[in-house]
Amino acid sequence: MRIHITSVFVDDQEKARRFYTDVLGFVKKHDVPVGTDRWLTVVSPEDLDGTELLLEPSGHPAVQPYKTALVEDGIPAASFAVDDVHAEFERLRGLGVRFVQEPLEMGPITSAVLDDTCGNLIQIVHTKS
Question: Which residue windows are transmembrane per the record (predicted)?
């Protein structure tokens, strides 16, 4: 068994597509109309057949209280692995990304947390081997 698709709830799918592709560097995999929304997924350019991230609309009534609670408590909705948190932090900050946690080293783990502009906090992390 392996993870095929996971999701983050986004306030605006088109804005999310631009942020996750143009800023974070993911690649659009699927973009299929589904009623007024879309089945919109992105993947890592390093693994085009790997785990997909569904940029899921936040329309369900339970979603907004859930997202608000996570953000208020500083809990990331997702975590993405990077090779160098400090370099990625500088690259993204240079693109105007707002971080709520600058790079923090905790033993073998370095992480930082950013605002995805679509209602979520996202963690970037690297674990030293």
Answer: none
